[in-house]
Amino acid sequence: MDEVSDKIRAYVASELLFEEPSKAAELQADTPLLTMIDSLGLTQLVAYIEEEFEIEIDDAEVTADNFRTIGDLSRLVGSKAS
Prior knowledge:
Number of strands: 0
Number of helices: 5
Structural class: mainly alpha
């Protein structure tokens, strides 16, 4: 699961928070993501996760519970990949 978290963290830092390096440097598994990214960023993140991990995320799964933190996203990916 660490590999999944690392890939998500790297994507968020480089693609979604590139203009805010201090926030990107703070990213941890429990960092609240929804306060750092906007709706466009969320859409980009969903697209990245679907492509990178070869899974499909239904609209109903795009919830605060699943996207609150990198750890939550990793659990979602893990549950869909198994």
